[in-house]
Amino acid sequence: MISVLLISHGNMAEAMIDSAQMVMGKQLQLDKLALLPEDSTETFQEKLNRKIEEMPQEDGLIILSDFPLGTPFNTVVQMGRHRAFQHLTGMSMPMLLCILKGRAESAATAESLCEQAMCSVRQDCFYVNQFIRKLKDQQHPGEVL
Known about the structure:
single chain; globular; 6 helices
């Protein structure tokens, strides 16, 4: 099974795991790491290194970071120079659920799951007000609402 590690500023990663497990049930090989206010860059790097070493990686490892160019993101990028894993940033619930669902497929690879997750994000994240306006326009073309 492909392992998944969520990293974030504060408790976002933990909350995402709790929410994902509410939707999908208990998940194996899913873990989190939080950058806390008291962590230095070096301390966080050591914690991340230990966490990666603890996780099973026979089938691959996917790391999701909260947003680009922050300390969690930068630390993962630096570690990627010496370790093999897939890294997605801008983590979201649609992204995480897509990866967790896809792990059950026998042909799934960490790389293919990342590609599927990016497609899922493009499909599942949208501007709701604009979506509703388009629906109204389709139902009542030319009418001013």
